[in-house]
Structure formats: C-alpha cells, structure tokens
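Minimal example, chain plus zinc ion.
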Amino acid sequence: MRGEEPAVNEALKVRALPEGSYDKLLEFLRLYRDAVQIVVDRIWSIDEKLSWKKLHRLFYSDLMRLGFRAHHAKEIYVNAKNLMDSAKSNGGRKPVLRKLSARIDKYDYKLDLDSMTLTLKLHNNYEVKLRLVTPKERVEKFRSWSNYELVVKYDEGVFWVSIYFKRIVKSLNPRTVMAIDLNFGNVTLAIYTPDGRRVRLKKLKTPHKKILTHKIWIEKIQKRYPKSWRFIKGVRKAIEKHGERIRNISWDYAHKLGDLIAELALRYHSVVVLEDLEKLKENNKKKDKEFNKRLGLWFYRRIQFCIEYEAGERDLEVVKVNPRGTSSKCPRCGGKLVEYGYRVLRCMKCGFVGDRDVTATINIYKKYISKHSRCGVSGVAPNAPKPDENPSGMQGNRDEAMTTSNHMNLYES
Ligand SMILES: [Zn+2]
C-alpha cells in the first residue's frame, strides 16, 4: 500500500563562495530587494484582482529599464504579489523588506556539478561565479534530476544558495486524494484511493497553545493599560514582542506543514483537497465560532497559503470544497452526527461511529469525489469508505494517526 515510487522535490542548500569580487552580486541583491519593495508599494493600494498579465503590463518595462533580465522581472513581481497577498490575507501591514534574498529562474543561472560552480546572471549583463562549498557526494544524486529555480541569500557576510531540484512526476493524473481537515488544535490529513481505501492517516498538532499564551499576554497588558498602551513606549514594545513571536511561530509552522503535506502528496500522487475558508465564514458553523473564539481565521489562511504554495511548486493540484456539514453529516448515510465522547461522533440514524477529524476527512474526500469523478479515472467508487470498526476511527497504523511521527515532528505543545 505504500509501494508507490516516491517522486521527490528537493532543495540543495549550500554555502557559496564568490570567485573574485562580489560587489556586483551585492548590488544585484539590493536592487532586487528594492524592486520588490517598489512593486509591493505600488500594488498595495490596488483593490482589484491582479493577474500576472496585468502585473507584467504594469512593471515589466520599468524593471527592464533598471537593468533586469526578463525572468528577473517576472520573479520580482510574482514575489511582490505573493508577499502582498499573504500580508493582506493575514490582515497585516505592508511588508517592509530588509533581507537580501533573490529568487532566480533557471534561465538566469548555469550550474556545473562537475566543477561545483554556479554562474548567476545579474543585472546589466553582469555575471558572477560562485563555488559551492559542500562535499561532492552530496550533489551526486542530483545529476539525474532537473533543476529549476534557486534562491540566493546574503546573511551576515555569507552567501547561501538553495537550488531546487525535481524528478519529473510521470503521471500527472492524481492517483489518490488527500483530504485535509484543519482544526483549532490539530491538522488531520488522510489519503484515499479512488475506491475509497484509506492508505495514510496523520494527525499533527498545531502550535495553538503557544500562540494563545502570547495572545493572552497581549490582552493582559492591554487590560492593565486600557487607554495608554499605545502611547507608553515600554508597553507598546512588550506588545510588539509578543506579536512578533506569534508571527514567527505561525509562519514557521505553516511553512513546515505546507512542505510536509506537499511532499506527501507528491509521493502519493495526490490531489490536495482543502475546505474553502471563505465558505466557512458564510456557513457560520460551530467550527467557525471555535476558530474565531481566540485564534481567528488568519492562522488557517496562513496554513492554506503555505499548502497551496508548496503544492504549486510541485505542480500538484489543490481543490477547495465547501465545508458545510463536513463535521456534522454521517459519511455513510447522510444522517446527523452527534457528540459521542471526546472528539468522537455517532450517527443517530445508522449507528456509524468515528473520530471527529477522521470523519471530516471522509466527508471532504466524498465531496471531492462527487464533484470530480470522471470517466477514465478507473473505479471511482460512489460510496463512502467503510465506517471504521473502532470508535476512534483509526484504520491502519494507530500510532501514526495519534502522534506526529518522528521525522515529521512538526510541533510539540
Ligand atoms: Zn449514518
């Protein structure tokens, strides 16, 4: 059941030593950062949807005039739009870029694994050659892979490059469905075959407790200084510190989770199915209240953003389904589910019993299948997976379902 040949996507992160002067490389990185900032500044107040075409029309020629190459320009406005989208979806402020980091398209660099050198094409036709500082054995396996883009960074006097490699996925048709249920305290993902067999189940904790702790601190401080907290520097600083911890914890988690999910989906050739958070708001379900009680939707948006981003990087399909009823309808008969112990649900009509989160993944899977089953995809079963025998709703490896597994230990709270 896990015999699928893994198709992997991997980044090679190494230190890079410029041969000769690196003035031009630093100049490029500063110019790149400032260009991303300019684009962010200009699109920040635009409310309409910005297509790639439109971005191209708005910025391409300006960026070319600054000396960038065609693919530099594309990376710059794609980067700027992503930054803006994520800042806005979190209700955050306009991003201010400080770090020196640039994403470079595969057309703008040459990689030579024999001599372990990398040549970057910079602005105004400058080039810089970098030596990769890593044992040769480490890069050996990438010879048969194809590289796509890379990220070059300058941090405290050291250059780093992350070169992204992929091994081409043979079949583009998804062979399994990965249903993801996001909750207050955990994320549940389950992979189903088209005939409804579950081949993988994972529950991962979210860092919500840590985030809550910082949130409670902020609320306490604000309560103690109800009118003046904005104006006393020390108080404001303390609040900002907790805010920054919240940002770091949540971004860090979202990135790791997105990466883990996309890697797993790649390995199982899955289409990734998420609940549509916008619809969730409309439905105004109980789950929504739980979301908003303290954590807010921003955290889930952030997680979804990272899942979609990482999946996109790997050419995986992401589909969103309406979350209506995913945790209240029986996947077997459609009857109403009621609480039956801690996070366990039971159907009033047919007696189905299942773990709340696992049941949600079955329903998410079913919603996807009912909409997307096509002729040609062999054996798409119209019926639900068999309800689970044991009340916790776990099939297969129970340990895996209950804990984060060792190498994917995302978060411990
Ligand atoms: Zn039922």
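The longest helix spans residues 233-267. The radius of gyration is 24 Å.
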